[in-house]
């Protein structure tokens, strides 16, 4: 009876975490005119391309975190994660949000279509047609087929960082960004909550390469994501059921994904396949 009770409890936890995840199927909106599926290697394995999109929506509690008065939403951060077929290496390519690109015709949520746009800021694709339009734009730019996508908003990012107990960063110089409203002395810090969000969104403090553009910010974001993974590995999260549940609960509540990653089982299978991935670089 005890074993049966444990099994029921475990299934209840699995179902709760899976139900946290929002699923969006953009397959129809993407259409058939897409890059080819890459060839498998000798072992039958294919590389995997995941597009991670950070939304700047101010809906709900995001307004308090993001500030400003912007309506709608744009892609504040977009990272194409290319994972090798053998799952032992990965490359992250970030797209500057203000880079000028050609945006293809996209289907809006109401079913109507946009006209193709030339020389528009990259982050506008998300405004025009959500995840599908951002995927179409990236595929047009790179000729790389996107297998999965993940969308996270400000509140979701903060929730995951806080569930980890913060993320360590190192500042070679003090930061005093009046535009982003973040001030930190030089040295090591464990950033949490809004402070962590402000740090990864920082663009204007010249002391650490912020000149109003995205290149310095991109470097910090990729380093921060790597630090988050190292935090999970180094703090015993995976061996502590209580902490692991807290992190998984925060992470799953934060995600909007395609159906292929919309259950805890899908995410755990992906995580397991990446167990040999080196995140130090």
TrEMBL record:
InterPro entries: LytR/CpsA/Psr_CW_biosynth, LytR_CpsA_psr. Residues 74-233 form the Cell envelope-related transcriptional attenuator domain. Gene3D superfamilies: LCP protein. It holds the Pfam family LytR_cpsA_psr. It comes from the Bacteria. PANTHER family: POLYISOPRENYL-TEICHOIC ACID--PEPTIDOGLYCAN TEICHOIC ACID TRANSFERASE TAGU. Belongs to the LytR/CpsA/Psr (LCP) family. This is Cell envelope-related transcriptional attenuator domain-containing protein.
């Amino acid at each position: 009876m005890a074993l049966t009770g444990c099994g029921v409890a475990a299934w209840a936890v699995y179902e709760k975490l899976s139900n946290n995840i929002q699923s969006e199927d953009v397959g129809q909106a993407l259409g058939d005119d897409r890059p080819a599926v890459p060839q498998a290697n000798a072992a039958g394995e294919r590389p995997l391309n995941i597009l991670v999109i950070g939304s700047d929506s101010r809906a709900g509690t995001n307004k308090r975190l993001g500030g400003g008065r912007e309506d709608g939403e744009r892609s504040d951060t977009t990272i194409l994660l290319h994972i090798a077929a053998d799952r032992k290496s990965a490359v992250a390519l970030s797209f500057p949000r203000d880079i000028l690109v050609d945006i293809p015709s996209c289907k809006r949520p109401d079913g109507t279509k946009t006209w193709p746009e030339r020389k528009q800021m990259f982050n506008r694709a998300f405004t025009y047609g959500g995840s599908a339009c951002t995927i179409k734009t990236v595929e047009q730019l790179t000729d790389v087929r996107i297998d999965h996508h993940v969308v996270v908003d400000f509140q979701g990012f903060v929730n995951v960082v806080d569930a980890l107990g913060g993320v360590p960063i190192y500042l070679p110089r003090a930061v005093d960004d009046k535009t982003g409203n973040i001030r930190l002395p030089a040295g090591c810090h464990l950033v949490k909550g809004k402070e962590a969000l402000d740090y990864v969104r920082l663009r204007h403090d010249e002391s650490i390469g912020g000149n109003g553009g995205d290149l310095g910010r991109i470097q910090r974001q990729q380093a921060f994501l790597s630090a988050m993974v190292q935090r999970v590995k180094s703090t015993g999260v995976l061996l502590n059921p209580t902490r692991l549940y807290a992190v998984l609960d925060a992470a799953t509540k934060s995600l909007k994904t395609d159906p292929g990653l919309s259950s805890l089982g899908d995410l755990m299978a992906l995580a397991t396949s990446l167990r040999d991935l080196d995140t130090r670089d």
